[in-house]
Amino acid sequence: MHALLVEDDDRMAQALGTALTQRGHTIRRVGRALDALRHVREAEFVLLDLGLPDLDGLELLRRLRTVCDAPLIVVTARCEERDIVQGLRAGADDYVVKPFRMAELMARIDTVRRRTAPPHGHPDGTGASVHTGDVEIDIAGRAVMVAGAQVQLTRREFDVLAFLAARPDEVHSREQILDRIWGDAFLAASRSLDVHVAGIRAKTGRTDLVRTVRGFGYQLGSPSPGGGSSSLGDERDGGG
């Protein structure tokens, strides 16, 4: 795998580069946003620091996502909830706060790579499209249509929606979703899942497309053009 490492700190870049090289990856390290944009199309994976000298990292993330769909993990010292939420909404597949354990980061890279591998149909092994209300979820094509118009979701938002659509009659626990999509059921303590569910609802304009089941998890809903209730209980309770 060829990784693009966007990191302006030399010591951190050296440590990350060494760890990745030892695992058989090739690395291109850049320290500026302009260079990241120049080289991102060749990358199969991106590690992105947000504290860059020439452009705010979140803005760079948004720009990278307009030209590249490679798996991307933010690796940064920014630990405020607002930054984490913005990073996930902007298209990051994961968000790791410095300082971190190198073994954990390498495990997260492996997990993201597995979860973002080219699809072979939907999570149940078929390539069917799922219709609910005026929403069509094309699993194989990784596309979502609402009232005939395509809606752009981030990779992780689509993965969550596709997982729910695979068994639309079932209620899925938070742990099930986190384990299947993130590869880590213990992420239930974070708000990553809730952020992505909120993104699905906002971008589709169908707040009842994903239903919250109080104290348990989520289920695919039957949306109406007017939106409607997004939960079977209190959203905060469903969100953990």
TrEMBL record:
Output this protein's name: Response regulator transcription factor
Residue ranges of the TM segments: none
Q: Which InterPro entries match?
A: CheY-like_superfamily, OmpR/PhoB-type_DNA-bd, Sig_transdc_resp-reg_C-effctor, Sig_transdc_resp-reg_receiver, WalR-like, WH-like_DNA-bd_sf
PROSITE patterns given in the database record = OMPR_PHOB, RESPONSE_REGULATORY
Species of origin reads: Streptomyces sporangiiformans
According to the record, the residues making up region (Disordered) are 220-240
Q: Taxonomically, which superkingdom?
A: Bacteria
As annotated, the DNA-binding region falls at: 127-222
Modified sites of kind 4-aspartylphosphate: 49
Instruction: Please give the Gene Ontology molecular function terms for this protein.
Output: phosphorelay response regulator activity; transcription cis-regulatory region binding
A biological process (GO) annotation for this entry? regulation of DNA-templated transcription
